[in-house]
Fold this sequence. Notes:
Structural class: alpha/beta
Shape: globular
Strand order of the largest sheet: 4-13-12-11-10-7-6-5
Number of helices: 20
Helix content: 25-40%
Amino acid sequence: xxxxxxxxxxxxxxxxxxxxxxxxxxxxxxxxxxxxxxxxxxxxxxxxxxxxxxxxxxxxxxxxxxxxxxxxxxxxxxxxxxxxxxxxxxxxxxxxxxxxxxxxxxxxxxxxxxxxxxxxxxxxxxxxxxxxxxxxxxxxxxxxxxxxxxxxxxxxxxxxxxxxxxxxxxxxxxxxxxxxxxxxxxxxxxxxxxxxxxxxxxxxxxxxxxxxxxxxxxxxxxxxxxxxxxxxxxxxxxxxxxxxxxxxxxxxxxxxxxxxxxxxxxxxxxxxxxxxxxxxxxxxxxxxxxxxxxxxxxxxxxxxxxxxxxxxxxxxxxxxxxxxxxxxxxxxxxxxxxxxxxxxxxxxxxxxxxxxxxxxxxxxxxxxxxxxxxxxxxxxxxxxxxxxxxxxxxxxxxxxxxxxxxxxxxxxxxxxxxxxxxxxxxxxxxxxxxxxxxxxxxxxxxxxxxxxxxxxxxxxxxxxxxxxxxxxxxxxxxxxxxxxxxxxxxxxxxxxxxxxxxxxxxxxxxxxxxxxxxxxxxxxxxxxxxxxxxxxxxxxxxxx
Length: 544
């Protein structure tokens, strides 16, 4: 097949170009005696399209002059066609228009008050809330950080809301810059994602450098971990913590390949790979294969990073694997400084449908298990916990903190603040908002200065809403939140607190006896520090 000749003018400008041609035809035709009414019509459309191209606050209008207004009209007169998909094996259920609008309002610093009470069905199964107090406290807007790595030479103070891992390559350079500038102004961190540290990340915002199985930014020519290049990037003043990604919620246990056609000079520089060649990310880390080896790898990174905090990120799957990691911590006395628990509902730009919908433990259950196990092993006071997975509101953060997290990471909410409209084209490169694309013709219209302000406002306004929620519940600090503060309707006639639904082990209980809970009864004794496989499987392999 012959190569296609690229169209010199993008088709998304069709309406604007037709308007220009219409004005060019009707104006002289009117001078020759034709009717006048088409002239002001086309002139108005040309003026509208010109305004769309020149304004900087809405990327969609810059990318789709005139056409974007048809979408705004549809939003104004009724629900969007794709407001909700029926959740099934073959369809993803995106956020509703109302949920996105709440983020947009906070990002734009618009009053987010609503009339006529709740729009939620409070008697529906699954409805959740926080009980208010008759003795509310004074809102404390200064207690919104937590210290990580108290024993390290370079501890870091983490905001309760931060930007979750999204790589350059998945997001455009302008989107990365806007996120980083917003993080710099707001005093929160920006997780690089596993795609490495690009020039777009270096706008002055704090970074958490995520290292995945491809070791981008710290790999040799064969794709193995390279300590020399790791030291170079870890020594950057912007890098405050190191995060070893074991798995992510949207596609746990799944590697990946970046086709050579997408490996541009910028992406190659950030990832430390050759330009134009396929890049493979293995499903597991080559640097370790057992929980004990993982702990020693963490200790090695900590030394190479001049004692900056080093943690891990994972989606919980087989319980015995997580229990094996805890036993490795107990046996080696090497602990990660923090653990980020990524729920199975976490997002990604591209993943098999089965992985999105049917692999990975949801955040609530996963975080509860991790927190409870660390408490039972008497390790919780030495390790900080974070939660991630569809967290966009102050209530989502409060619920996650109540389950044991010290802070939260969000990807979706910050993408909405950049102008993402959930067009579901992240994997195609045709993102209409210029957020999830490497097409410079689309991404250049995302105004970095304007969108960084929205990132900052979304973060600030969400944490202010969290402080007011805590105040209404009679609590002074986020650390005062517990599972007993969050209620859930389990049926139309039954309500339970999270303390009843997700009980926590007593401090040190795992060190004294086997807890009377099914997961621990089944898998704790079977787990091993020297293998991710349970004892029975290890014995069978040894016999073979």
